[in-house]
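Before relying on records like the one below, remember that each one covers exactly one chain. Contacts with other chains, cofactors or solvent are not represented anywhere in the record.
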Amino acid sequence: MFAASGVAADSRVNQLCRQRGLQGRVMWFDAEANLWALSSRDRVADIVQQCKAANINTIVVDVKPLSGLVLYDSKIAPKLTRFEGRPYPRDYDLLRTVIEEAHKVGIPVHAAINVFSEGSQDTPGGPALEHKDWQCVQYDIERSVKAGDEPKRAVKSAGYPYSSGDVCVYGDDAKSIGELPPNTYYVRVDKEGRTLQSEAVTGRARLSAPEGGFVLVGNRGAGVWLRDMVSSGAKFTLECNETMKPVGDLNNVHAAVFVNPLHPEARAHELSVIKEICENYPVDGIVLDRMRFPNIYTDFSDTSRKAFEQFIGHPVENWPADVFKRSAVPSTEVVRGPLFKSWLKFRAKVIHDFLAEARDVVKKTKPNAKLGVYVGSWYPLYYDVGVNWGSSKHSTDYEWWPEGYEETGFADLADYLCTGCYYTYPTRSEARANGEEEWKSVAAAAEESIKAVDDATFVYGSLYLRQYNGRPAKFREAIKQCLEKTQGCMFFDLVHVRDYGWWDEIGQVFNQPTRAPHEVPELLDELRRK
């Protein structure tokens, strides 16, 4: 399913960049992780100097974090004034400060925005919290378990880590439960509701659910209840009720509150933020992050239903079942309906069309500014967030692939992509040696990126530095894999370079300065003429 080894060697973009000695060397300044470290001009100047010494040639500064509260002077978006209970300097403009200090030493600056994240459950005041109707509507289910003749009991689909004090249910994600508190009791249940195994356990668990079955986990009173039900010989039955809820009412990844990319006011807000930055700041580029849906379960609002029905040319008789149904047993898969593939293509077209509009805004407002996009490198699985970041010419035989899905590919619209090769092992062989599938390696992820983009734009393999804490040699090897397989490397993010003291590690690999490929506009023009 994933790219085979050797794909990158055939990349024409790789060959052109090697011939010219070009490499993207991108340092990402995450807003929240570095907020206080970047809260004064002196601090910014010091970090910029260290970037220069390490031969970084592009700085990406996050100025619209998850909360939607911005870190520049805006007439459109609310500005962040407090964080973690502390006041943020009211008159401080992070974007302008980073641009001015970086331009002094010749480093281009690209402003990043978390596009469709407009609120955070950790930070009050974001636009999505002020405009609840903007929020994505998630097709959710409320699960309960019935044991014998006992009244049914609510259960949490906790994913991971385990939620202490509750009865939690796991399906094919059971192996990822994580650390368990003392006196935790688990029950493995088959698809007929019969107990296959039950035991008290403490510590990191790798529990597997039986095929078609599930695992119930509980401690304290929840654990006692599970143990008593097993002792009584009761069968366990899962039940669920379907609900449609705004994502702000749910616990989402990173506490981000996403807005619907199809909501006209939310969409207009995002485009106006992009335009405002381009009009008012001498940025060298814009980078779009979280330009996606939060998960496969969104958006099921009336707005999206009407747009989908227009897309397919007829009403949806059974909503949402004709798209898919969710199972009582937690699973990474959904029960697909007859319109599932059409739904995938529809969502990917929504994001493609937004990027086309955003590109038009950037290029008309600031013609020389570059447009970058961050995506995860796991292309064969990325349909779940409604994104096709491959080339419009890239087509595969994945079993989920809708006819014409390649038309939604947006790599051709971006001046570069940063693809998150966020894996612990630098090489395929090391992943295999440690019992992981080889695609869960930096090298394989980078080659998957090259395969999907198919020379439509520049690709910079991206590293999550936290995965290399205490392993500087592996970190250097991971950088080298990105540089060998793609046209550069992006570091996520600055906070880890600072905390680990890794400026010298980066400088050892980037021992000579060079330009980033996206800074050579004629190169991309040449590429796209072929």
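The chain has a mean pLDDT of 93.
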